[in-house]
Task: inverse folding
């Protein structure tokens, strides 16, 4: 995974749209497979908020950030609620990577509304919808397709922009996957 976090993940997130100086919110960050590469991209003028409810995963992320001298990672422990405690229009990029399948539809809707609130007008919502019907369906996504996810997010004042496919981090390995990018409705 080290190669993902320092090289391939950096290139992938650059393609997705993470840029130098961005403020990024990695919701459900776990051990930082996306936090670490995002922090490298945004640099010293940017910041990555790493949000998760699992203290052990956050501890591992803290160690990785220290080992990589990443002073721009801010770790936030939550109780798992679908709210984002950030100011309105303060975030450039929101990452919902491999996390939405844990949430019931009503909680996902709240989370999309929160993302809309905290994202800057020209911000980016990037979603890795793992575990849909097309990709090892489980939990809340066991009967939801990729197009269903696009419609669900689109119904929360977002516009689908682009799909990125390729080798992507999942848990502690790599697999073929896709990321869906959305912008706010104007």
Result:
């Amino acid at each position: 995974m080290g190669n993902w976090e320092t090289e391939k993940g950096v290139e992938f997130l650059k393609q997705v749209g993470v840029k130098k100086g961005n403020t990024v919110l990695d919701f459900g960050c776990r051990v930082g497979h996306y936090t670490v590469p995002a922090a490298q991209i945004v640099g010293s003028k940017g910041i990555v908020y790493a949000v998760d409810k699992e203290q052990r995963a956050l501890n591992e992320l803290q160690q990785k950030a220290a080992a990589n001298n990443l002073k721009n990672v801010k770790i936030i422990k939550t109780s798992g609620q679908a709210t984002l405690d950030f100011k309105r229009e303060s975030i450039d990029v929101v990452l919902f990577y491999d996390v939405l399948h844990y949430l019931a539809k009503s909680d996902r809707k709240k989370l999309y509304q929160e993302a809309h609130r905290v994202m800057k007008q020209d911000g980016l919502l990037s979603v890795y919808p793992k575990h849909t019907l097309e990709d090892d369906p489980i939990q809340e996504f066991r009967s939801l397709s990729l197009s269903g996810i696009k419609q669900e997010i689109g119904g929360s004042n977002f516009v689908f922009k682009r799909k990125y496919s390729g080798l992507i981090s999942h848990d502690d390995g790599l697999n073929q996957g896709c990321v869906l990018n959305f912008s706010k409705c104007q």
Q: What stands out?
A: The longest helix spans residues 2-16.
